[in-house]
Amino acid sequence: MTDKLIIFDTTLRDGEQSPGASMTREEKVRIARHLERLRVDVIEAGFAAASNGDFEAVRAIAGQIKESTVCSLARANDRDISRAAEALAGAARSRIHTFIATSPLHMEKKLRMSPEEVLEQARLSVRFARNLCGDIEFSAEDGYRSDLDFLARVVEVVIAEGATTINIPDTVGYAIPELYGNFIRQLREKVPNSDKAIWSVHCHNDLGMAVANSLAGVKIGGARQVECTINGLGERAGNCSLEEVVMAVKTRRDYFGLEVDIDTTQIVPASRLVSQTTGFVVQPNKAVVGANAFAHASGIHQDGVLKARDTYEIMRAEDVGWAANKLVLGKLSGRNAFKQRLQELGVDVASEADLNAAFARFKDLADRKSEIFDEDIIALVGDSARAA
Ligand code: KIV
Ligand code: ZN
């Protein structure tokens, strides 16, 4: 039997923490509906105790989403947890996600609590939450910079109190793939009741390694939930990007041996929706969802792709929601790509000599003009017919 990898989307919570990405309740509901169509397993809808607006957004999403589990974040205190439970009351499936920091730095400087106090607060909070909801996720904030033995004690206690998912964030994007994967593995080995919970990874992108770290947490560490966002939206340099992690697991199924339930054809529409809603433009060379992710400009690549797409494509554009791949015509393009475009435009060229003449004119034009439009090509063929 193949293992399943749970996809936990936090675009509406951690993604929204990106400066300038705040969304209205209606916008969040629209995105949540799309995430459900994408078939994400868990939608983190917000942080109910953060504001009345966030509470209402979580409540609205909980009322409308039927297939995905709807989750609210809550600090490890009774007030936050009660607000989360209240906002989630109408959900078909709900999860309370409670967290407390466990690194020496965060405990001492931010929380001003001793490790024993943190451990006790984690225990009591999960106990309290478990009475309100059957699905409890516990996160050890700044988990990756925590002492392994202390973290193992915290995790053992919260699992004993009924936490069903254990999330170990790399809150500040400090991890390196191999080290993070080993950290999760060692932690699981140290926790005696580790198999009573699903292990989860949550990586930030400060060093550009959020996706690689998450995948190492899965492959080396044995995590079976990845927390991610559409377009990698999130605090500072962002979170692990959903589209990249999903397509990595699907494309390299030979290596990961895992299934995801995601309907990948909804990825590009989801990316566009999030980009339009937040105003955060997707860079053209972004993997999977960037405008150039399936575009070929060089003649050698275009020729290869026309003969067999696998030569330069490891995924199909159509599988992630693009209409098709693209052969971009420019100064690097070859004769085959030019001929193919003429066929697509329904332009007949009488002879090979006409085609060669038109292609020569096209190359001259492409040296002068960075973008060649279909109209340019039609005009070129006319010119070459006249010249012949
Ligand atoms: O990055 C982080 O530590 C978080 C937790 C609250 C899960 O977002
Ligand atoms: Zn985070």
TrEMBL record:
Pathway: Amino-acid biosynthesis; L-leucine biosynthesis; L-leucine from 3-methyl-2-oxobutanoate: step 1/4
Residues that, per the record, bind Mn(2+): 14, 202, 204, 239
Entry keyword annotation includes Protein biosynthesis: no
Residue ranges annotated for the Pyruvate carboxyltransferase domain, each copy included: 5-268
UniProt keyword terms in alphabetical order: Acyltransferase, Amino-acid biosynthesis, Branched-chain amino acid biosynthesis, Cytoplasm, Leucine biosynthesis, Manganese, Metal-binding, Transferase
Cofactor section: Mn(2+)
Keyword check for Transferase: yes
EC number: 2.3.3.13
Broad class of enzyme this protein falls into: transferase
Catalytic activity line of the entry: 3-methyl-2-oxobutanoate + acetyl-CoA + H2O = (2S)-2-isopropylmalate + CoA + H(+)
Gene Ontology molecular function: 2-isopropylmalate synthase activity
Family: Belongs to the alpha-IPM synthase/homocitrate synthase family. LeuA type 1 subfamily.
Subunit structure: Homodimer.
Role of this protein: Catalyzes the condensation of the acetyl group of acetyl-CoA with 3-methyl-2-oxobutanoate (2-ketoisovalerate) to form 3-carboxy-3-hydroxy-4-methylpentanoate (2-isopropylmalate).
Protein name (Swiss-Prot/TrEMBL): 2-isopropylmalate synthase
Gene name per UniProt: leuA
Shown residues in whole-protein numbering: 1 to 388 of 513
